[in-house]
Amino acid sequence: MTNMEGGGDPGGIQAPVVVDRPDESRLVVEEEGSVAELVYEREDDRLVLVHTGVPDAMGGKGVGGALVKAAMRKAALGGLTVVPWCPFARRWLRHNPQIAGTVTIDWTS
User: Fold this and answer.
1) What pLDDT score was predicted for residue 93?
2) How much is the average pLDDT of 22-47?
3) How far apart are CA 85 and CA 107, in angstroms?
4) Integer Cα distance of 109 and 97 in angstroms
5) Is residue 51 helix, strand or coil?
6) Residues 2-26: pLDDT tens digits?
7) Taking all residues of the chain, what is their mean pLDDT, rounded to a whole number?
8) Rounded CA gap, 65 and 96, in Å?
9) Inside any domain, residue 106
10) What is the residue range of 69's domain?
11) Which of 19, 34, 109 is nearest to 73 (CA)?
12) Is the residue at 105 inside a domain?
C-alpha cells in the first residue's frame, strides 16, 4: 500500500487520504467504515481508469476528485498514459484541465 495523498491545507480543510492498493488495482479512501475507490488496470504503459465509486456517506467532500488526482500522480510518477474509461473520471478531468495537463491522456480508447 502506498499513501498517495493526505494531510490538510492551510485553511484547515482535511484532504482525503488516498491509498494505492496495487495488488487490488485500486485507489481507496476509507472514512468511518465507508470505502470509496477508483478501480484501475495497468496495461503496459497505460493506466486505465475503470470505475470510481463513492458511497453516499462520503459524497460532496471531494473524495472522487481526490481519487482521480491520485491516479494522475500515479501515472505521472510511472510515465504512464491515462485512459479514462470511467465516466466520472473523464468528466472530472475535462473540468480540471490543470490536472489533466500533467500527463498524456488517451481520450479515444
Assistant:
1) 98
2) 96
3) 8
4) 19
5) strand
6) 665 554 444 556 789 999 999 999 9
7) 91
8) 10
9) no
10) 2-100
11) 19
12) no
104 in helix, strand or coil? coil
Q: Could you tell me if residue 15 is inside a domain?
A: yes
pLDDT in tens, 64-92: 999 999 999 999 999 999 999 999 999 99
Q: Which residue matches cell numbers 488516498? A: 18
- On whether residue 94 sits in a domain, the answer given is yes
What is the gyration radius of the CA atoms in the chain, in angstroms? 13
63 close to 32: Cβ distance less than 8 angstroms: no
CATH code where residue 26 lies: 3.40.630.30
Residue 109 — very low, low, confident or very high, per pLDDT cuts 50/70/90? confident
Sign (positive or negative) of CA dihedral 34, 46, 84, 109:
negative
The count of structural domains within the chain is 1
